[in-house]
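F.,

This is the one I mentioned.
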């Protein structure tokens, strides 16, 4: 049974794709896990980090993106989910130089359109818009779950918008990681995604759920280690569960965004930020293991 880890925030540019791919690399290399990244964002950044532009274009031309997967499978027509995946992806190799057991369902610019079309398809059978919406969400959720058998960890890189796919991902996730930047709007963005994950209307309702019982954990990304950043991070930690580990603001993390044709070890990929990534991984891995054991 795979663990489903969603990475989400209502805000863009906070490091969702960076953290999603960093943890995918970390889990494959240091945890020897079979990892799948599902790119649910039409920005396709997780796909570009893992495959580069040309690799992503190849997937698009071959009709092997998440849009194709959802669209083809929605009809329950022939085709196996694994046919849509790119295996041994990314420019990181293990310590022995072998390709990682890291797979990707490439993202698509068409994901919103495809969800619209699926909505129309469902609407031919039911009239109530709430029923239609919940059917679309339910079917996408089941399609996301279909990859479960072949992986230990499935990482869902979510778009900031409220697409059906994002809602399905948040619902099915065993844990949601919420990266945030220590700035003044981050508190609001974290509040909003927390309400969505816990399906609460107000912050007062949210407060009734013990921090340790929440389905999400926040992680500070891009902190510069000054007092202002520390204050903002501490304040988020009052209202939300928060990892001790952080990813610092780092040129090496920014550079790790760029796919590179030459394979390298994880230490080369993340340079001076490798230790921070490892600390993050070592804090998240036991949380995932404990939740999986409790299921
Ligand atoms: N810790 C960091 N240090 C430096 N640059 C970062 C860091 N985290 C993310 N970035 C950069 O910020 C930009 C946005 O990050 P990204 O992961 O795409 O955010 P999101 O997925 O939330 O939109 C990217 O260019 C990325 O390389
Ligand atoms: Mg992203």
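My design for it:
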């Amino acid at each position: 049974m795979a663990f489903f880890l969603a990475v989400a925030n209502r805000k863009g540019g906070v490091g969702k794709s960076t953290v999603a791919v960093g943890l995918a690399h970390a889990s494959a290399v240091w945890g020897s896990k079979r990892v799948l990244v599902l790119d649910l964002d039409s920005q396709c950044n997780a796909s570009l980090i893992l495959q580069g532009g040309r690799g992503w274009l190849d997937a698009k031309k071959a009709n092997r993106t998440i849009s194709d997967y959802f669209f083809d499978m929605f009809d329950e027509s022939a085709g196996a989910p694994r046919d849509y995946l790119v295996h041994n992806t990314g420019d990181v190799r293990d310590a022995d130089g072998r390709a990682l057991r890291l797979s990707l369902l490439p993202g698509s610019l068409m994901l919103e359109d495809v969800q619209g079309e699926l909505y129309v398809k469902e609407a031919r059978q039911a009239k109530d818009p709430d029923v239609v919406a919940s059917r679309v969400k339910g079917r996408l959720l089941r399609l996301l779950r279909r990859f479960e058998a072949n992986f230990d960890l499935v990482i869902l890189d979510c778009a900031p918008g409220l697409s059906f796919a994002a809602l399905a991902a948040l619902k099915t996730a065993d844990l949601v990681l919420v990266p945030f930047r220590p700035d003044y709007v981050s508190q609001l963005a974290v509040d909003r995604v927390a309400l969505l994950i816990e399906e609460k209307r107000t912050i007062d309702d949210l407060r009734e759920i013990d921090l340790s019982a929440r389905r999400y954990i926040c992680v500070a990304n891009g902190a510069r280690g000054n007092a202002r950043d520390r204050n903002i991070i501490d304040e988020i930690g009052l209202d939300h569960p928060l990892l001790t580990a952080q990813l610092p603001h780092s040129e090496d993390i920014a550079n790790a965004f760029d796919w590179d044709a030459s394979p390298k070890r994880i230490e080369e990929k993340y340079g001076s930020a490798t230790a921070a990534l490892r600390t993050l991984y070592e804090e998240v891995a036991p949380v995932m293991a404990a939740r999986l054991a409790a299921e």
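The chain has a mean pLDDT of 95.

Talk soon.
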